[in-house]
Amino acid sequence: MNGQEKKVDFQDIVDALIKKWYWVTIPLFLFIFIGLWFYVILPRTYEAETLIFVQPQEIPSAYVQSTVNQAIEERVMTLSQEVLSRSNLENIINDMNLFKEDRSEGTSMDIIVAAMRKKIEIDTSGGRRGETSSFSISYQGRDPRQVADITNKLASFFIESHLKLRAKQASETSLFLDKQLGELNTLLQQQEAKLKEYRNQFMGELPEQLNSNVSTISSLQSQLETVQRSLSEAMNRRLGIQSQLSQIESNQPGAALSSQAQRINDLRSRYEEAKARYTPQHPSVRQLEQQIKDLENTSGKRDTIGLNPQVIDLRSQLKTAGLEVESIKGDLARIQEKIEFYQQRVESTPKREQELAALTRDYTITQENYQRLLDRSYEAKRAESMEMRQQGEQFRVVDYAQPPEVPISPNGLKIAAVFLLLGLGTGAGIIFLLEVLDTSVKGIKQLEQWSGGIPCVTAVPLALTQADKDARKLRAFIYLGINAVIIVAGALIVGYSHFARLTVELPIAVPF
Predict the structure, then answer these.
(1) Which among 435, 442, 475 has a CA at the least distance from the CA of 17?
(2) What are the phi and psi torsion angles at 130 (to 5°)?
(3) pTM higher than 0.70 for the full model?
(4) pLDDT one-digit tens code per residue, 124-155
């Protein structure tokens, strides 16, 4: 063959398939019946599904704002952890008598719970525009009715847990706000007491009293001017009387008092002034009174009998004028003292204004926070009442799970596709391998290729003897018999497995 490598083209494969059909039918029938047997013996797995709709709250959110703002997906995940917890699933297993064989064999409950948890699926992809308005719960198992019952039980757990979760969150929110409200109320009362105490302590110096103080000062200044004028007039009158008295005394020397009488008059003048300023029990008043008495006892009445009546009258007027001057001076001092007092209030007002502004600012901020928290507390209580009456957002079952009629596993179409491809692929692979290993020449074209392009002049057809024909017929009957045996044996095995309800648990997971 001149060292040429044999090339197998598509036409050669087609010719080989026609001639060696048995290499296709034998693995094809074999894999078909293996696939049928697998379909029969594999345990049926059923899946039940229930759809839960997220029903919005009955009362419009414009009137009552819910305190549960967690997204549906997050809530479903939270509820899933609670519903699929070990204790909850263990209760379902015990109540519905699930996994009897595993429990009778002493399998750990943790392993059984984990196996059950794998059979549960929660899908939150329902809804539009990325918002979850529904979600589904499915469960897989061998018994259709049991699968439906478990799915419905899980759905009822979800609904009950959701109601409890919302009521708990609403109640905890209300309690938290009440606690914060109490603390803020205590702080508000403390700040209010400080503000009240400060106002009482500095009453008269507060900013809102500034105009009143200024008005009082203006009024006192007007009074001061009036008193000053009165003082000036009183002092002028006293000077006039003193001038008249001095002139009379200088013109009538006999009318002058003795030195002792003059002393008595001076003491009396001082005595009257002291009485106007102090009480009768004051030491100065009592001392002057005693001195007058002593002098009167020693001098007698003769010193005063010879006085001029006009002098006595002027001296009396002088004494009265002196008392009036001293009284006006007292009024003037009191008015000046009041002016200084109110002036000090006015000067202290800016400082009080700053201190009062700091206290008022803290009090105002606390009061605003208290009012906001109070509004939120009222809203939380309304939301809590709504949740307790089950008028908030709820989970409602749209479609209760029904016992499934068609199993989801094994999948007949997948099994058929897989084993049909295996059968055809195996047959085609065997034929291709035989063609590659076959060194005989098949046809003029192949001969010319192997000879390096030398044209073939003539060809002698194959002449079969009767023995060759008989051998071919025998091989055909043998291969037909093999096919028949495979069909009959496969049908018997598949039929027996079907009617005997034979079930085989494979140690590995199969893709169908």
Answers:
(1) 435
(2) 80, 0
(3) no
(4) 776 554 455 788 899 999 899 999 999 999 99
